[in-house]
From TrEMBL:
Described purpose of this protein according to its UniProt entry: Catalyzes the initial step of the lipid cycle reactions in the biosynthesis of the cell wall peptidoglycan: transfers peptidoglycan precursor phospho-MurNAc-pentapeptide from UDP-MurNAc-pentapeptide onto the lipid carrier undecaprenyl phosphate, yielding undecaprenyl-pyrophosphoryl-MurNAc-pentapeptide, known as lipid I.
Protein residues bound to Mg(2+): 181, 258
Its membrane topology: Multi-pass membrane protein
Main location, first listed in the record: membrane
Positions of transmembrane segments: 6-26, 52-72, 78-100, 120-138, 158-176, 188-210, 230-247, 254-273, 279-302, 329-350
Protein name: Phospho-N-acetylmuramoyl-pentapeptide-transferase
Pathway listed: Cell wall biogenesis; peptidoglycan biosynthesis
Origin species: Blastococcus saxobsidens
Family as reported in the entry's similarity comment: Belongs to the glycosyltransferase 4 family. MraY subfamily.
Gene Ontology annotations for the cellular component aspect, listed alphabetically: plasma membrane
Length: 358
């Protein structure tokens, strides 16, 4: 438990202290956000706000994870694991794709960075590499990922071959990284929502650690690899998001940019894969799903009828144009995320109660 607190605390402290340094450095370099011309008029005043703050989130997460391990170096049975390092690889890799996107936006002074093909290729390389590596490094016969589709645990009838798993994992990772990216349109919305989803994975992975089949074969135990290390990554990521949120709340002094949103989306998807809770993430990450669906519905309906379902997509901009203030949209969407996370954790716990007969 102490290691989890250290990971979260260090992630928080590093993020909250480094973010203002990043704000000053990015401002000196002229690394300011470009704003969509067709967006809400109230957002035009945000033009020039420093972006690429996701570099701080990624760095603070890595430092928090490392600090938790260094604090207990030398203790027996304690060390870095394949699962923890793979999650950090996924986060850093997706963050690098986002960094390139942010850099091109700033360099060309427009709100669009990498073209769709380049962005998808970057996500493809990182996502496929993670998926392939996650099927390696067995420990007691258990690899970081499973080729079986999961909900709260693996669903045996939905077993996939390695190739099908890699394809599905890539689509899952790319989908959620883009979903968090779409959600990152209001001050603090993506950071606050991501912190809550990561908090749910602290609970899930720690519960799996205390009910690990590798330690004791009991009813409802979980067949996962390195659940405690997953908890450390989740705790460090949550702390990093909260520290960044201190400076990112309205009016934001810095934006995470695609660097942060792609990194967080990739990390959250990776968490779901290694904890065998892929379909459960559709519930706990319900806000990200809803925002993405709003874009899909808007585009599909407009192409079919030349009419729009929403005033503007993604969904949060629809409510802004409907008259809600930005802060109202943010707080209410945070509440939606909180309810989705609570409901998802309820489903997770209910599954365990079903095994123990309570």
């Amino acid at each position: 438990m102490r290691s989890i607190l250290i990971a979260a605390a260090v992630g928080l402290i590093v993020s909250i202290l480094l973010t203002p340094l990043a704000i000053r450095a990015f401002r000196r370099q002229g690394l300011g956000q470009e704003i969509r011309d067709d967006g809400p008029e109230s957002h035009l005043s945000k033009k020039g706000t420093p972006t690429m703050g996701g570099t701080v989130i990624v760095g603070a997460t890595v430092i928090g994870y490392l600090a938790a391990h260094l604090a207990f170096v030398g203790e027996s049975g304690w060390g870095f694991t394949a699962t923890g390092l793979l999650l950090l690889f996924l986060m850093v890799g997706m963050g690098t794709v986002g960094f390139l996107d942010d850099y091109l936006k700033i360099r060309h002074r427009r709100s669009l960075g990498l073209n769709k093909t380049a962005k998808l290729v970057g996500q493809l390389v990182v996502g496929v590499a993670f998926a392939v590596l996650a099927l390696q490094f067995p420990s007691n016969g258990i690899t970081p990922a499973s080729t079986v589709v999961s909900y709260v645990r693996d669903i045996a009838p939905l077993a996939l071959g390695p190739v099908a798993f890699v394809i599905l994992a890539y689509l899952f990772i790319a989908g959620f990284s883009n979903a968090v990216n779409l959600t990152d349109g209001l001050d603090g919305l993506a950071a606050g929502s991501s912190a809550m989803v990561l908090a749910s994975y602290i609970f899930i992975s720690f519960w799996q650690f205390t009910h690990d089949c590798a330690n004791e074969l009991i009813d409802g135990c979980y067949t996962v690899r390195d659940p405690l290390d997953v908890t450390l990554v989740a705790a460090a990521g949550m702390g990093a998001c909260l520290g960044f949120l201190w400076w990112n709340t309205s009016p934001a002094r810095i934006f995470m940019g695609d660097t942060g949103s792609l990194a967080l989306g990739g990390l959250i998807a990776g968490m779901a894969i290694v904890t065998r809770t892929e379909l459960l993430l559709v519930v706990t990450g319900g806000l990200f799903v809803a925002v993405t669906l709003s874009v899909v519905i808007q585009v599909a309906f407009f192409r079919a009828t030349r009419r729009r379902v929403f005033r503007m997509a993604p969904l949060h901009h629809h409510f802004e144009l409907a008259g809600w203030t930005e802060n109202t949209v943010i707080v209410r969407f945070w509440l939606v995320t909180g309810m989705a996370v609570a409901f998802g954790l309820g489903l997770f716990y209910a599954d365990w109660l079903g095994f123990v007969g309570l």
